[in-house]
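pasting input
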Amino acid sequence: MSNWTIVLVSALALASCSDNRSVTRPFSILFIVVSDPGLPLQGVNVFVDGKSIGKTDANGAVHGEVLAVPGTSLRIAQQCPEDHRATEDSKSMRVRHFESVDESAPSAIQVTLRCKPLRRLAVFIVTARNGPNLPVLIDGHAAGRTNELGVAQISRWGVPGTEYALEIDTSANPRLLPRSPVHAFTLPDAHEIFVVNESFQLQEPRRTRRKGRARITKIE
Amino acid sequence: MTEPPTLLIPAIDEETTMLQTRNANLDGSTAELGNEPGPSEPVARGETGALSLRRKSELRRCAEGILVLGLVSALLFVGYQQWRIAESIRQSMGELRNAEPPPPNQEPSPTPERVPLRVESVSDPGSMRQEPQKARIDQLESVGAALIRANDFEAALTHYRALAREIPSESVFDDLVRVLQSKLRCERSLSLANGGCP
């Protein structure tokens, strides 16, 4: 009898010491997908170990409960929309379980994923002082025209690194100086506003010398 | 034996000096000598000196008063101008912040900046309001450009949002809103939650 008791107690003790890390646990994870830092992206499908969690909402967020063994790695990937690409193919995340004594502590793990836009928006704000109704060319093509106050807004999409040459065409009014000034810009890897300030001056008409006989003064 | 010559020499000197002075007065040949006062003049000169001193002090006081008055009025003028500028800036900022269109049954704001745009169709050439309308749009575009030049992106975002709403045919205003949102790191959806964007 006593032998059986000893065996039973030992078995229970061993069982209590057994590794319980192999038990799968639910992990609450909040995925946030952004196009640029702070700019959420809607409708992005998020995958954990190849299994879809769901699509992001208007705040770029999707919440998922993932069953995993603590200590194991999860492979996270996102399916970016057109004109976007993930900054990395997939992300690996090791999960661990812990109990928090702080009730206010966030219960869900937050993971931020990024889908970078392939094209960027360039907006040109042209302010041409003394230059109303002037054509504005971008890379030699007509893109807009300044209004009565000499202001024009033009937008263009382009891949980062695109170079633009903006010209305010004064060929219709050759008395304006400077003549058809050109400004060069390079689109960075972000949406950008380019401001062009140009101040034109009206050139005075040249005085033509009257044709006539040259006066010769004889000095003796 | 030695005393008489010692006494005589100074007397001669004085006499000579007196004669020279008198001669100069009679001559009046030089301006300096002619202006020298006579024997009775020192009294008159003292009176005129006192008078001129009094007048001088009065004049100085008067000038000081004018100077103080001028300074005070200049300060008041500058203060008033500053107040006017501040008031106009405050007013325009308030107008930009209140860019939301008024309810349909509400009368539009009387200020020229915030009167909602009534964009008439291009196919309406007979419209009499087209030209003023265009001028107003030009003015609004100019204000927006000035806000961007001043790096006031929040005010510019509000301004271009209003412009994009009122002129939906101009896609450039939507693009501007998009870029400004990107610059301010906010989206419409987030702005409601965080209040980070105007």
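fyi Chain A has two domains: 22-117, 120-202.
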